[in-house]
Amino acid sequence: MVMEQTQTLIQVSANSQQVLDSRDVAKMLGKTHAHLVRDIDRYINDLDQNPKLDSDQFFIESSYQAGTGKNYKCYLLTKKGCEFVANKLTGRKGTIFTATYVSLFNEYEAEHNGKAVAIDSGLEHEKLAYKREWLIEMRKQNVNKAHELRNQDVKLYLELGKVADDYQRPRMATDFRNEAIRAMSALPVGARREYSATEIGNIIGVSPIAIGKWANKLGVKRDADMSYRDHDGAWRYFPEALKVFQDNALEIQDDDLGL
Fold first, then answer.
1. DSSP assignments along 42-95, one per residue
2. Are the CB atoms for 46 and 85 separated by under 8 Å?
3. Distance CA 259, CA 246 (A)
4. What is the pTM of this model?
5. What would you report as the CA-atom Rg of the chain, rounded to the nearest whole angstrom?
6. pLDDT tens digits along 55-113
């Protein structure tokens, strides 16, 4: 596959997609390339189970030649592919990788557009606009990661509470459940309140299924400022989404009752 190497790590594939070599991604993640290739093989197998998903939109199989002259398999990761890998990570490592790949892709796009409009005196404003978009994306990613980590803490404490129940340790079980409540009520610094479909359903008096249905109807799930999907596949909604649901509460209630 013929590649065009740019001044950054971003390459351009034969079908004009911007990509990162899996060897570079492995270095960013601090893991061996063989392990990353193994993981991507598994991701592709999962994606191929769904006929609506095209794994080539995420990972493009390629190869490289080692010093011995032997060819080895590698992958070219699109921006979607990098996002897919990032979503498998949690904590600091996931945040750092997200910041790195988003920065690389945005820098490439800014540089590419800059060449296309080199005579435009407003070029510097164009670069600043890309920088602003990158900063917004980073804040959003960091907030979402913080929310996910908090939710994992809550689940852990609830599971520990069940274990304490099994061993007939009611005081310990209560302590663990109190910790879960404290974790749930403590928003990360700079984070926004978020709600599950069940919580919003309880607020306006409908089922969680109705919330999921109307989130699609009202475009809530298509707006990253109103919702996101966590690593467990559950949708989480921000206050802006709650307001949309409340504004349409009567119609949602009637629909949920089959009226």
1. HHHHHHTTSTT--GGGTEEEEEEE-TTS-EEEEEEEEHHHHHHHHTT--HHHHH
2. no
3. 18
4. 0.42
5. 23
6. 888 999 999 887 777 889 999 999 999 999 988 887 677 777 887 788 788 777 776 66
